Amino acid sequence: MMLNLALLQNKIKRNAVAYTGEFRQQLRSFDAQLAIFELAPPKDSKEFGRLVTFLSQVSHLYPEDSGSFAGDTLRLLERSYEAMDGDLRKTLFQALVLMRNRGGLDPIVLIKLCFALFRCHDKGLRELMYNHVVSDIRNVNRQATNQKLNKAIQNEVYRMLEDPSSIAAKKSLQIMVDLYKRRVWVDVRTVNVIADACVSNQPKNVAIALQFFLGIDEKIDALEDEEEQDVIEESLEASTGKSREKLERGAQKTAKMFSKKTRSRMRKREKELKALKKARIAKQGGGKVSSEVKRAAAPRFPAIDLLNDPQGFAEKLFKKLRTSHDHFEVRLLMMNLVSRVIGYHKLLVLPFYSFVQKYLQPHQRYVTNVLAYLIQASHDLVPSEDLEPVLKHIANAFVNDRSGPEVMAVGLNSVRELINKVPLLTTGQGMDDLVQDLILYRRFRRDKSVVIAARSLLNLLRELNPAVLQRRERGKYHNSDARVREYGEHIVSQGVDGAELLQFLEEEAKQLAADGSDDGKASQNEEIDEGDAALKSGQQEQDDDDADKAGEAERAEQDDDPAAPAPGETLLQKAKKRKIDQSDRIDAKRLLTDEDFRRIRKLKQKLDQEKRDPRARRKQERKRVVAYQRNVYLKALEKQGLVVEGIEGTESMSQAMEDDDPLASDLSSSSDEESDEEINAAGAINSASLEGVVRRRRRELAERLMSVYEGRKGAHELKEHRTGGTNNAEKLKNKNFLMVSKSRQVQNKQHQSLRQQQFSLKKHIKTLEKSKKTVQKIRRRTKH
C-alpha cells in the first residue's frame, strides 16, 4: 500500500488530470476510514496516517474535490487527540502544516488548534507546534505588519494565559516572549500582559516573566548578532562553496605559505567581499525596506519603560514577594525586578527598604546580589530617613573588626554607592561620626581591597559633601563649592549642559589655526634651530616631575614667537573664569549635531577627571608645548625635503601632524566612546562591582583558566591542520626502541636502585591520583 501510494503521488504530480479518478477513490477511502475512526479509534492506524499524508501532498492539485479534506482532518485532530496514537497525531499535524504552507488553510485556524493542543501530554508534538506558531507569525509579518491577524492571534494567546492547564499557559507565555525577542510583537499590550504573568499563581510562568524583564535586552542583542553571522556564513558558502571556518583556515595557511599578492588572490578576495556585500543586501530585503527591517531599525526601549502603571505593578509584585514561599532564587528575581522598576521610574515603595534589611547579613546567601538590589532601588526622591537605618545596619554588620577583609570591602563599597545615589544621607544625625569611622579604614594594613574601598568613599565625599569631613581630610584640591541639594531640589540648566566647553575649544582651535597661518612667514633656518632646541627641552620636561621652573623658562623663550601656544588653561579653569551669556552660547546660535554631542560628552568626562587630578594643568601644558615644538621641527624638515627616520609616527607627515595636534584628543569623536561607557537603560547594578579588588582578580583568574581549559578541548583538531611536521615529543614516542635503548634516560632507568624505583613509583601514583585515574592498574603491574 505504501509503495502504491508513493508511486501514485509521483504520477499525480507529473500529470494530475490523468489520475483524477484514482485521487477520488483514495478520497472516498479516507472518508470511510474517518467514519470508522470516529466510532472506535483503531490501535493500528499506520495505514490511515499514510493515506492522510498522501492526500495532503496532492490535495492542492484538486481544489474542487478536496474542499472538505482540511476541515475534516482539523476537526478529527481537535476532538480525538487524546485517544490517538502519538505518531498519528504528529502525522495529522504535519499534514495540516503542509496544507497551510500551500495556502489551503487559514493561519488563524491552525494557530488556534495549536493552542488547544498545547494541553496534550506529548512533548514532541508541543515542540513542533511551538516552532510552527512562532515561524508562521514571523512569516505573516515579514513584508508588512498584519494588524488584523496579529490582534486575533494576540487575543487567543492572552486567553490561553488564563487556561487551567499550566502547560498550555506556559507555552503561550513562551510564544509571546519569543516573538518580542524577535521584534515581531513589541507593542505595549504584549509587555503588560507579560507583566500580569509576574503576579500569577503558576510558579513557572512567574519565573519566565521575571526573566523576561530582567534580561530580554541582552537576548535581543545576542540574537541579532547571531542572525547576522548566519546570513553572512550562508552567503559565503553559497558563493564560494566553503564554510567560514574553512575560508579562515585557508587564509591563515595561505598567509603562512605565501606573502606575495597575486592577481588570482586579489580576485579571490574581491569575490569574498562581494559575497559579504550580497549577504548584507539580502539581510535588508534585497534593497526593499521590509516590515522586519523597519522593526529592527526602530528605536528600542527597555521593556520596563513600556509598563502602563509602574507604581501599581511594583506594589503588586512586592506584595507577592512578602507572602511568597517559592524558592529563594525566585524570590531574588522578584526582588531584583521590584528594585529595578523602583529605580528606573523613581517610585516610592518605602516598605521595600526595611524588607531588604533583614537579608543584609554577611552569612546570607547571595548577599552581594541583595545589596545590589538595594542600591538599584535607591534614588534622590527616597527620603533619607528611610535609608539611614539601612545604611547604618550595613556599616555595623559588614564593616567591623570581627568581619573578614572581603566582607569589609563589600560593606564599604555598598555604603559608597548608597551615598552616591542619595547624597542627602551625609546630612543625617550621627553621620559625621559614622563617616569618620569608615574612612579610617584607608590605613587598614591587612588587606588592600579594604584600603581601596575606603579611599574611594573618601574621594566621593570630597566631591559631594566635603563639609562632612574634617579639614585635614578634605584634601587640597577638593570641590569647595559642592553642597548637598535639599530634598526635591533640582537644578534647571539653561540650554545644553556642557555646550560652553565645546565653545571654549572651538574658539581656541580657530585661534591656533590663525596663528599657524602666520607661522609660514618665518625663515626655515630659524624654525630648525628653534625646533631642535625646543624638542630637546620638551623631552627633558616630559620626564621631569618638578617642571614648574622649566615651564616658565620655555614660556619666556617663546614670547617672541607668535605661533607658540599660550600658557595652558584647563577646562576647569576656563569654566570658572569665563561666564558666557545665554544669547552668546553656541547652542543658541546653531543646531548641535550628533558629533557635537559626542564631543560634549567627552569634554564633560575630561572636566570630571580634571576635578579629581590636581596635576591636570601641568600635564596638559607640557603636552601642548612638546606637540607644538615637534610640529615646528617636522614642518621645517618637510620644507627642505628631508625624510626623518627613527622617529615614531612619521610615516606620513599629515598623520604625524594630526597625531601631535593638542586639540585632536578633544575634538575627535571616537567610535568606541559609547562602547567604553557602561550604559544600562534599565539601571541594573552588577553585584561583582561591590566585591573587593582582590576578589574580582581571583574571579577573573578563574574565568581565564576556564577559557584556557575550553580552548584545549579542540587541540587534537589543530594537530591535523598543523604545518611544519611533528615536535620532538611525538618523534620520541614513534622511535624504534633500539634507537633509544642506549640513551641516557633509558640507561638511568635500568641502573636505578630499589629505593629510587619506589620513589619514582610513588611519584607516578600521585600523578595519577591528581588526574583522577585509578591506581589499581599500576599496582597490579608491580605485583607480577
Largest sheet: none
Please state the average pLDDT score.
75
Percentage of residues in strands: under 5%
Low-confidence stretches: 523-567, 644-681
Query: Count the strands?
Result: 0
Structural class of the secondary elements? mainly alpha
Radius of gyration: 37 Å
Fraction in helix: 55-70%
First and last CA, distance:
67 Å
C-alpha geometry = extended
Q: How large is the count of helical segments?
A: 39
Explain what the structure shows.
The chain is mostly helical. It has helices spanning 2-14, 20-39, 46-58, 69-80, 86-101, 107-117, 123-140, 147-160, 166-181, 188-197, 203-240, 244-257, 263-283, 291-297, 310-322, 328-345, 351-357, 367-376, 384-398, 405-421, 431-439, 448-464, 499-518, 524-543, 548-557, 571-577, 586-589, 594-612, 616-639, 653-660, 664-667, 673-676, 693-711, 715-720, 728-733, 737-740, 744-750, 754-770, 776-783. It is extended and about 105 Å long. The chain starts with a helix and ends with a helix. Belongs to the SDA1 family.
